[in-house]
Amino acid sequence: MMADDRNITGGKALDDFLKSLPANIERNIMRSALRQGANVFKAEVQENIPVESGELRRSVRVVTKAKGGRVTASVRVGNKRAWYGPMVEFGTKPHKIVPKKKGALVIGQTRAMVVDHPGAKPHPFIRPAFDTKPDAAIAAVGAQIRKRLTAEGINVPAAETD
What we know:
The protein is of the alpha+beta class. The protein has helices spanning 11-19, 23-48, 55-58, 85-90, 127-132, 134-151, and strands at residues 2-4, 7-9, 61-67, 70-76, 95-97, 105-107, 110-112, 115-117.
């Protein structure tokens, strides 16, 4: 399997071969391989977050699923504490902040009823990761498939290189 200008060669042969394996081995190998590819994106997303540390950076995680013979991996950003990821990625328009409880919004020593927020510029950190790392992710998937098949006792040829 080789990636060239975002085209994968040998993918059909690999897919046919994986389908010849027992379903649980195929699912486990693909889940492991897709996790390795997604981890490449995860590291880049974390690197792109425009702060040194914090909840947003810690919230980045990889999730894999296997359902109906289809295995997927995704990179998720956000949790209950870091719910603001889309606001950082896409920015916000100017808006009013109105507290749910009267006088609940405190700025310094002043209680406010309404605050005019000027908005925030976008700081993309997710999309650039997926735009810059597809070849590395594909290579990580291929390497993990080779590693797992070798561990299963199946002879796998070395990766093609330019």
